[in-house]
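Lay summary. Proteins are chains of building blocks that fold into shapes, and those shapes determine what they do. In this project we predict the shape from the chain. Here is one chain we studied, written as its sequence of building blocks.
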Amino acid sequence: MLKTIFNAYKEFWLNATDFKSATKRSDWWWVQLANLLISFLTIPIFLRTFGFNVYGIICILPQLAMDIRRIKDFGKDWKWIFINLVPIFGWILWFIWLGFGETGRGKTKFI
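And here is the predicted shape, written in a compact code that computers can read:
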């Protein structure tokens, strides 16, 4: 399991500027878990040192690339990333699409 998490996280960084390929649903989940754990560990340090979460800022581009790949796998256009600007409803919809949508270009079925 640790090898799976490490490989998903490594691919997260290696594909930081790849907006065209695909990302497996399981890899998306593993990266979210890894980022959550790293954030819990680093936020107190960065907030005291810099006053903001440096790790979160560094992760913006790779996370955006991964999310765009997942939304394309779900069968939606990249412009759907702006659904995140709608509080609560947009966040829930985004989480369902990326986290539970079936992998494979244009498939919009749920598990």
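What the prediction tells us: The CA atoms of residues 25 and 42 lie 26 Å apart.
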